Structures are given as structure tokens and as C-alpha cells.
Amino acid sequence: MSNPVAQRTQNSANFADVVVFVVCFALFIFSIYLFGAAFSSPAGTEFWVFWAGLIVASIAFMLPMIYHAIVDRRS
Are 60 and 22 in contact, with CB atoms under 8 Å apart? Predict the structure, then answer.
């Protein structure tokens, strides 16, 4: 018989995981709003509003990675 090489442990999310998810999801939704608002913003500000959406979306994707790098439960 073959033995499994690695067994998956049953992980459950704690309160901080849920808070990070909700904050990052809200940031991502806000970035989508900024992308759309860039097309109806005053003349000369479209570029900056769109870039603000890109930066907010980048932060929304970076925060969970940074959080899980700081709070690594495997070690």
C-alpha cells in the first residue's frame, strides 16, 4: 500500500483572517469603482483616478500576502 506523502491539516479561519478578507474585498470593490469613475471624472483627472484604482487594487492583493507572511502558522 502507498502512504500519502503529505496529509492536509484541517485549518479554520480566525477573526483576523476574516477581517483581512473583508478589508481586502472592500478595497478591491472600491478599486473597481475608481476604474469606472475615471471615465466620468473632470477633465485632466482621469489619469490620476484610474491610477488610484490600480494602486488600490494592488494594495488589495498585497495585504493578504503580507498578512500571511507575517502570521505563518506552519512554523
Answer: no
Convert the pLDDT of each residue in 32-46 to its tens digit.
Answer: 999 999 999 999 999
Print the SS3 string covering the chain. CCCCCCCCCCCCCCHHHHHHHHHHHHHHHHHHHHHHHHHHCCCCCHHHHHHHHHHHHHHHHHHHHHHHHHCCCCC
Q: State how far Cα 30 lies from the chain centre.
A: 12
How large is the average pLDDT for residues 54-70?
95
pTM for the complete prediction? Answer: 0.78
Q: Which grid coordinates are listed for 57?
A: 487594487
